[in-house]
């Protein structure tokens, strides 16, 4: 695992990420400041973004979490497994989903549909990074708020894992071909 980090390419430093989250927080504030929203951290990947973003939002809000997973420590996604539903009622709420990455978009599309079924009034989404390729789901092409864009490589750091490790990596990294088998 030490080699995975050593051989990876750093795409964004913590300083660049912080500036991008600042800019995204301003955009979110301009749309959501008067909505008393419910922020839903999409576990596990959304945890670092939630921790960095929430203190930059200077308006009243609730925070809860939802856990659904599609990759389960693999490098490619499959069917979505639901693990934990939020304890907070979504009825009539403006919900902001927070996740680390919008890759094919299946995860956020499914969680968004579920939130609407639970009676959410509006569902917005914010992601740290959008991976650029043409394999996006038909439902949603991008999140409502996106901090950064990255090339079509396997990413880790700031919430994104490599086989369960390195969510804590100090930046956003692209794994080397040697570690992704490409
Ligand atoms: O846009 P998609 O192709 O659906 O992929 C994005 C999702 O994949 C990752 O979650 P994962 O299933 O790996 O669970 P995790 O958050 O526990 O890592 C990530 O955190 C997003 O939720
Ligand atoms: O590139 C990725 N890295 C980590 N987790 C992910 N989940 C979807 N795509 C990715």
Automatic annotation (TrEMBL):
Annotated catalysed reactions: GMP + diphosphate = guanine + 5-phospho-alpha-D-ribose 1-diphosphate; IMP + diphosphate = hypoxanthine + 5-phospho-alpha-D-ribose 1-diphosphate
InterPro entries: HGPRT (IPR050408), PRTase-like (IPR029057), PRTase_dom (IPR000836)
Pfam families recorded: Pribosyltran (PF00156)
Domain of life: Bacteria
Domain (Phosphoribosyltransferase) ranges: 15-140
GO biological process: GMP salvage; guanine salvage; hypoxanthine metabolic process; IMP salvage
UniProt KW Glycosyltransferase keyword: yes
GO cellular component, one term: cytosol
UniProt keywords, alphabetically: Glycosyltransferase, Transferase
GO molecular function: hypoxanthine phosphoribosyltransferase activity; magnesium ion binding
Keyword Glycosyltransferase in record: yes
PANTHER family: HYPOXANTHINE PHOSPHORIBOSYLTRANSFERASE, HYPOXANTHINE-GUANINE PHOSPHORIBOSYLTRANSFERASE
Name this protein carries in UniProt: Hypoxanthine-guanine phosphoribosyltransferase
Protein source organism: Pseudohongiella spirulinae
């Amino acid at each position: 695992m030490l080699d995975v980090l050593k051989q990876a390419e750093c795409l964004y430093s913590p300083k660049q990420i912080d500036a991008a989250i600042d800019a995204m927080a301003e955009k979110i504030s301009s749309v959501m400041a008067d909505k008393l929203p419910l922020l839903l951290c999409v576990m596990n990947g959304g945890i670092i973004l939630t921790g960095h973003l929430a203190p930059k939002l200077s308006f009243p809000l609730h925070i809860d979490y939802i856990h659904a997973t599609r990759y389960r420590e693999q490098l490619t996604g499959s069917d979505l497994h639901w693990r934990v539903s939020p304890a907070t009622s979504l009825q009539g709420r403006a919900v902001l989903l927070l996740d680390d990455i919008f890759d094919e978009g299946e995860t956020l599309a499914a969680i968004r549909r579920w939130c609407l079924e639970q009676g959410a009034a509006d569902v917005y989404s914010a992601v740290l990074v959008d991976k650029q390729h043409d394999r996006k789901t038909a439902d949603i092409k991008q999140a409502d708020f996106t901090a950064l864009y990255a090339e079509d490589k396997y990413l880790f750091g700031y919430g994104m894992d490599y086989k369960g490790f390195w969510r804590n990596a100090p930046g956003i990294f692209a794994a080397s071909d040697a570690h992704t088998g490409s």
